[in-house]
Amino acid sequence: MPTTPDPFDLMIFARVAETGSFSAAAERLGLPKSTVSRRITVLEAQLGERLLQRSTRRNFLTEMGQRILIPAEQIIHEVDAVMAVAEHRQVTPSGRLRVSVPGDLAAISLAPMLAEFSKAYSEIQLELDLSPRYVDVIADGFDLAIRIGGEAQDLRLTTRHLVDLGIGLYASPQYSDRAGQPDTPEALAQHDILVLLADGVPVNWVLNKDAQLVPADMSGRRVCANSYELLFRLARSGAGITAMPDLFARPYLASGELVRILPAWSLAPAMVRAVFPSRQLMPRKTRVFLDALLGHLKPRPLRAPQPVPA
């Protein structure tokens, strides 16, 4: 009974049939001529029949060789198709990209980057999961997850540090004009405070200035919510003072919609990291998304003062 042939041997046979000689096929395949000859001999032994009639000038197909040539050529076509897909995806990132992102980060900060990314990479279908759950990247089929704070615990995943988010206190100019600005952390007790909830518990503020740590008096707490985005909107509407990542506040400081409260003080930064199944053989679609994230999140250098014309 014939034994199952190696598909690679069938590919070698198809190349020999195409070129008409062992030498030309070997050159086409990047193999030694002796290897090509030996693999054809092995293939013939497995199939139990001679496939080629050898001559000093050219090889001719036997009846058996003619019968298996089309299936052997089909293997080459399938391999070429696989290589074409791989080469296209390396040159032009494509396919579905599933990313888990904290909803607040996506809505407040990442929307412009996501819009630019979708325009720049039209062959990537970006699928964003903004649910607050801590997804299982591998079991749930995600290419990448962005996480804020916490420690990496899953040894199956690779972690890439993206940025440390500085956190400050912010309010609207309208609130500041109405209620004034505190000049010390203790004075926050006299102000309306908008506080983040984590696991149902208000997050207390510990302010830091030059390594001096001062717990804020939170007795002025007016609103608690488990959404940075809601607190952010409330602060912009003049409802009070809230703590938020400087990255979220940056464009609204520039537009005058927010002011920094106690600018010399800050809260502990929050680490933003990306986790993904493996750094080796990372799909190009994932790599370009990571690059876009880093470009958007990295701190922007201050512009050097421009010389005043004489």
UniProtKB/TrEMBL annotation:
Coiled-coil annotation reads: none
What molecular function terms (GO) are annotated for this protein?
DNA binding; DNA-binding transcription factor activity
Q: Could you tell me which InterPro entries the record lists for this protein?
A: LysR-type_TF_proteobact-type, LysR_HTH_N, LysR_subst-bd, WH-like_DNA-bd_sf, WH_DNA-bd_sf
Instruction: Specify the superkingdom.
Output: Bacteria
UniProt keyword annotations, A-Z: DNA-binding, Transcription, Transcription regulation
Q: Which residues form the HTH lysR-type domain?
A: 5-62
Query: In its keyword annotation, does this UniProt entry include Transcription?
Result: yes
Residues in the signal sequence: none
Q: Which PANTHER family match?
A: HTH-TYPE TRANSCRIPTIONAL ACTIVATOR TTDR-RELATED, HTH-TYPE TRANSCRIPTIONAL REGULATOR
Family from the record: Belongs to the LysR transcriptional regulatory family.
Q: What is this protein called?
A: LysR family transcriptional regulator
